[in-house]
């Protein structure tokens, strides 16, 4: 089976345009007048992403969208500026590549082994900044991005369960259906063990988008060739480009793009207290999500899956045990 066919097989049967519009209208009715104050976040395309994330369950999608709107008002992702997160970008641990994949999707390169800070809040703020930038640079008509994750320099000491949990929450709760594919390039064996533990706590839709790729496997090369122009792809991922990350050049590019993005916020001119009040008033219309909605949509994609992310804390023992083992080995050597 080709990669394109495999990709298509993961997509559920689409609704008719009339059925989609009916569900969009129902979402707007459940959200209430506040939807009019967020023309982008509550556009048809955006609402469809929330519906797909909840397998067309309108009550669950409404609840999810309302919570995302509250987060947007409080977190203000559109107001994060380069100077706020510049120090997070110094090592190139996350950056947007200067090319798209063959499907017109933005590409975020991630190198978790290049982590240079400790504060979870700062790391998540930088992730949100990169997500916003990647979305802004999508081709017209394209809604998703690709994550290219390079494991060079990575070990269990680089792992932060809190960052993993918050990253999953941001991706699943705040930017649903924005991830098209996540490629894990040459992950070490120890990460594969960690992944087996983490996978049950992620939404089915999310972990189905994760592909393991290895440079010494011919089939992996076919996946990369199907996705990218090899002349543009970095050599670190099997491509032919010798261009490396330059912090100075990237900082200049981000500052230039910020000028184009500064007017993109829907909420910047809104009265926050008024909008928050309206959101709270709409709570009663969608507070019955649960048993009344259990017969609609896929039970594998629900609120319990997201709350289970808290269980990732138990996995931190694996990280601590690995660190202790490494410390013991170093002690013996010395």
Please describe what this structure looks like:
The protein is of the alpha/beta class and 334 residues long. The chain is 48% helix and 9% strand. The protein contains 15 helices and five strands. A five-stranded mixed β-sheet has the order 1-2-3-4-5, with helices on both faces. Strand 2, helix 6 and strand 3 form a beta-alpha-beta unit. Helix 2 packs across helix 4, helix 3 packs across helix 4 and helix 6 packs parallel to helix 7. It is globular. The N and C termini lie far apart (52 Å).
Multimerization status: single chain
Strand order of the largest sheet: 1-2-3-4-5
Distance between the termini: 52 Å
Number of helices: 15
Order of helices and strands: HHHHHEEHEHEHHEHHHHHH
Brief digest:
The chain has helices at 3-9, 17-31, 44-53, 58-75, 82-85, 120-136, 161-174, 189-198, 204-207, 218-227, 247-261, 272-281, 283-286, 303-307, 316-333, and strands at 94-100, 106-110, 145-150, 179-185, 210-213. The chain is an alpha/beta fold. It has a five-stranded mixed beta sheet with strand order 1-2-3-4-5, with helices on both faces.
């Amino acid at each position: 089976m080709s990669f394109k066919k495999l990709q298509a097989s993961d997509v559920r049967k689409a609704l008719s345009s009339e059925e989609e519009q009916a569900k969009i209208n129902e979402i707007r009715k459940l959200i209430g007048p506040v939807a009019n104050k967020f023309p982008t976040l509550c556009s048809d395309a955006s609402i469809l992403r929330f519906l797909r994330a909840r397998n067309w369950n309108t009550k669950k999608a409404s609840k999810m969208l309302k919570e995302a709107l509250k987060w947007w008002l409080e977190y203000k992702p559109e107001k994060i500026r380069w100077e706020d997160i510049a120090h997070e970008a110094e090592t190139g641990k996350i950056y947007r590549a200067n090319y798209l994949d063959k499907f017109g999707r933005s590409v975020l390169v991630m190198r978790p082994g290049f982590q240079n800070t400790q504060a979870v809040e700062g790391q998540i703020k930088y992730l949100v900044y990169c997500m916003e930038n990647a979305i802004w640079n999508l081709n017209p008509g394209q809604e998703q991005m690709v994550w290219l994750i390079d494991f060079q320099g990575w070990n269990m000491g680089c792992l932060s369960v809190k960052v993993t949990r918050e990253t999953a929450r941001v991706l699943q709760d705040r930017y649903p259906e924005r991830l098209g594919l996540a490629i894990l390039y040459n992950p070490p064996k120890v990460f594969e063990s960690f992944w087996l533990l983490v996978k049950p706590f992620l939404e089915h839709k999310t972990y189905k988008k994760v592909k393991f790729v290895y440079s010494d496997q011919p089939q992996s090369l076919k996946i990369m060739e199907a996705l990218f122009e090899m002349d543009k792809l970095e050599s670190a991922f099997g491509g032919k480009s010798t261009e490396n990350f330059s912090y100075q050049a990237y900082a200049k590019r981000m500052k230039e793009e910020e000028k184009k993005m500064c007017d993109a916020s829907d909420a910047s001119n809104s009265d926050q207290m008024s909008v928050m009040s309206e959101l709270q008033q709409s709570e009663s219309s969608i507070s019955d999500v649960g048993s009344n909605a259990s017969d609609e949509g896929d039970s594998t994609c629900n609120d319990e899956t997201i709350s289970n992310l808290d269980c990732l804390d138990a996995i931190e023992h694996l990280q601590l045990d690995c660190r202790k083992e490494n410390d013991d080995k170093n002690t013996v050597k010395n």
